Amino acid sequence: xxxxxxxxxxxxxxxxxxxxxxxxxxxxxxxxxxxxxxxxxxxxxxxxxxxxxxxxxxxxxxxxxxxxxxxxxxxxxxxxxxxxxxxxxxxxxxxxxxxxxxxxxxxxxxxxxxxxxxxxxxxxxxxxxxxxxxxxxxxxxxxxxxxxxxxxxxxxxxxxxxxxxxxxxxxxxxxxxxxxxxxxxxxxxxxxxxxxxxxxxxxxxxxxxxxxxxxxxxxxxxxxxxxxxxxxxxxxx
Length: 237
Known about the structure:
Blueprint: H1 5-8, E1 31-36, E2 42-47, E3 50-58, E4 61-65, E5 70-76, E6 79-82, E7 87-88, E8 92-99, E9 104-106, H2 111-123, E10 134-139, E11 145-150, E12 155-160, E13 163-167, E14 172-177, E15 194-196, E16 203-207, H3 209-216, H4 220-236
Antiparallel strand pairs: 1-4, 2-3, 2-8, 4-5, 5-6, 7-8, 8-9, 10-13, 11-12, 11-16, 13-14, 14-15
């Protein structure tokens, strides 16, 4: 029996059409430790509608994967991903990292963040478990909001994100406050009133700070974009 090149190729030789990078085993990309980004570094990406420009998204922080590769992490549409995974030709392609102060674009994580993650992992060894639990929880420093659309009723809700939790299965999710369950203030990480982004009812997205505030101010352009999203959800449902 003969095999095609696609059947016999080594996984390391499989290249993403859009990012032009090898596609690794997804299990090796599981995040096992995160640290916050405190110097306002961003991910930069290109968009097909404006190929001559670069756009910036503030990083939530930096994460170490099981394969010890360090990546920036960002909220992207409906999930938190590594910056390098932003390779959607319709929504944006990762181009690197950006320091707004020096206006420098670079491709490798800062060495001090790599060292911080290595030291953190040495102090708190990752132990795999079948139980899913919160391993770390970082306060939000980006002002990202959760936007929930309920198209059938033409309504939406904006929720402020309190913190970001790394779960033992490798996913990072926003944590939101259930105001009906608040018994102590200020609310601290681990409080029972906090719940993960994935438990929101309806269709939910992460929205950047500036855009979320444009919606709060009911600016016409932001509301028009919101209406288009509503129509898209109704069409796809």
